[in-house]
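Repro:
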Amino acid sequence: MPKKVDTRYTQERELSWLRFDKRVMEEAQDESVPLFERLKFLSIFTSNLDEFFMIRVGSIYDMTLSKESHVDSKSGLTPAEQLQAIFQTVPALYKQRDKAFSHLDKRLRACNICCLRPDELDGQERKQAERWLRDVIFPMLSPMVINSHHPFPHLPSKSLSVALILRREGERCFALIPLPKRLPTFFQLKEQGLRYLLTEQLVMAYAEKLFSSYQVVEKCVISVTRNADISPEDEDYDVGESFRAHMLKVLKKRSRLAPVRLEIQGECSDELVSYLCQRLELSREQVFRSKSPLAMGYVYALEGKLPSESAAALCYPKYVPQWPSDLVQGEKLIPQVLRRDTLLFYPYHSMDPFLKLVKEAASDPAVLSIKITIYRLASTAKLVEYLAAAAENGKDVTVLMELRARFDEQNNINWAERLEEAGCTLLYGFEHFKVHSKICLITRREHAHIQHITQIGTGNYNEKTAKLYTDFCLMTANPVIGADAAAFFQNMSTSDLNGDYSHLLVAPNCLKSRLIALIDGEIAKAKGGRPARIFIKVNSVTDRELIDKLAEASQAGVPVTMNVRGICCLRPGVPGLTDHIRVFSIVGRFLEHPRIYAFGAGEETKLYIGSADLMTRNTERRVEIAAPVLDPDVRRQILHYVEVYCSDNVKARELQVDGSYLPMPREEGAPAVDAQEAFMAEAVRDAQSSQSRPTAHSQHRPSPVRSLLSRLFSR
């Protein structure tokens, strides 16, 4: 018999995630968000849901096939019951998306941004579209009638196809027009404004031309989502095969995994649905109907085609990441970081100071080595250029590259080859453990003295997402942090996951146990009548052991405030169990991504930043790092950011005991506070003020918003 789990203050992970994605869609319905940005939020919701089915539903589906019994530790549900709950919840989200898309389409049409249907074209426009189909699209299509000589084809995950029922000489048959992913996603008419048609709608409208000897009885657009939750460790290695070559084989296999969802746009009879379900081996509850487009990645391509006046009116005002005020832009970075710790806060600050630091190290005669862990990179990466240059300049460059970063595997394989060609030493992590830490160590010898410059991040070294995700980048020459970083890389190169560190918290060996000890410390304070506080900012909370420990802290009277962007399996506000826990989420212009862990009140606060969410996969099955923030100025800087986050009453939503989210209550007369807007304004103001000073120095002004810091960290 499976062990009975206590679900009084926990909730099912997948339903929590779906509520978060619904929260993303609500940004598409928010009248205060610029109109085209609302369309982008709808696109984000759609891509989020796609990945949810590929990974989470795929993983649960695999568990239903296992002979072992599984019971979710937060909900007590079996995998089959989890799938049933998901399939019952998702249709309402499709209806909400359809309603949101229809509303946005009408509003954008009024601004001459028109997603047209083929039947809306006038004669001249129809000729343009037909010429484009004839010259560009039809030559790339392979329409097929399904019969004994033409079996049902493999449909790649999330590719679009037009499914049809045809008739000829009284006989009915099924047909498909798969749309290759390399096709353009839309056709823009040569008119003023931005008038366009989606490729799948045009192909469907002119499908008769591809089956001229048949009568088209019905047609619709379909998309199959396949399980993408494949583990490289589950696949057999060939003798002598490198891990990089093995990953290439794994990627090829992923594209052929079992379907987990069928989406249909347009009218579709029961006959066609039954046929598709039979061929794809799907149940009816895995079929989802949509009136809005099934793939919405085209929205980002549209943005670059908006007329300038439309972009100004319909998009967020352009924001340029700033150079931080405590670094002098015209001076070398290495001496500045050796003098004092520096914190970058992306995307309010530019990533350039860190990149410049690595570039300087590549040519600095005193630098002996550069060591770094890499999880995700942009398709174009200056960082790789600088690391390659360092190796070519004779530096010892070691890159621990994680090839299993989901959906970035091929990109990482390509970069690994480039770095290896330049002379870098490449490591590929551990079996069963992904390396998700963000750490870079620069080692110098100055006058026979060894110096370490350590960078610890909460996000990836991705120069593109550093403009879209909020993240911290701490650069420090603190010798105790440097000594731990040096030990970490030595342990990684010798496959030692059990190394001891004096200051760094490193998973899987000691991060969770140290966090539990820190929570226990606050529990002891509360029981002893001393001030106690816990603040945690992460993306997700699913680790049952940590959830139980936080509930124990609440029951001891410790005030716990948690800023959790997405999944939170802990239900706050349960009387007698979690009633001292407050959880809020912020969804805004930028994706919230920093991880902050703070324990204590006032000057005694123990403050850490790191790469790990409070998820079992992070605490037990990944290599993660959290670093203490020791510099007083940087500590004040981060605590100020915490204060502003906790004051947000515009984008923040508070998690309720039933798992739903409600807007943060705003006291009468209190100013509206959007944390991300406040951080942009601060960064610009500080950068402008630093330009008038001959020597920049960190000056973190008090927040103009109502202070909540006293509740969190003061006595």
